[in-house]
Amino acid sequence: MTFSKDITDKVAELVKRYPEGKQKSALIPVLHLIQETGNLSLTIEQMDAVAGLLNITPIEVYEVATFYTMFNLKPVGKYVLEVCQTGPCMLNGSDQIIDYIKQKLNIKNGETTADGLFTLKTAECLGACGYAPMMQLGKTYKEFLTPEKIDAILEDCRKAIL
Ligand code: FES
Asked: Distance, CA 111 to ligand 1 centroid (Å)?
């Protein structure tokens, strides 16, 4: 596959931020770009094409894309609920929050609702332990989660698409 000129221009801009010959350093921002301009996930074909653009091997792209939970390797919903499950969040009730979301949306961890709106993912520490339990929703953090807050967040998401 090939990317549009708009995308390849943006990739070239990202690569310019790094010293010559160090184009692999642009890999994470390039993967973000491809994911955000696509359907919020990365395909094998896209990752292979990224390897071509950066003149690195496909395995180097797969290693990064599979390591970081922020990259989705299968289609996800419009809203991805990434609930932290590391120690401080767990001690403050993240398990109950995860169970509540599962029951409320009738999905398991890693699944997407039938309407394509929500995906539930668990994440390791997101660096906001003082606000536990918390989750990432797009580019925002939702903190001190309770079932009531989850209800309100889901409702706000639903309203946003009306
Ligand atoms: S343990 Fe949840 S943000 Fe650090």
From this structure: 22
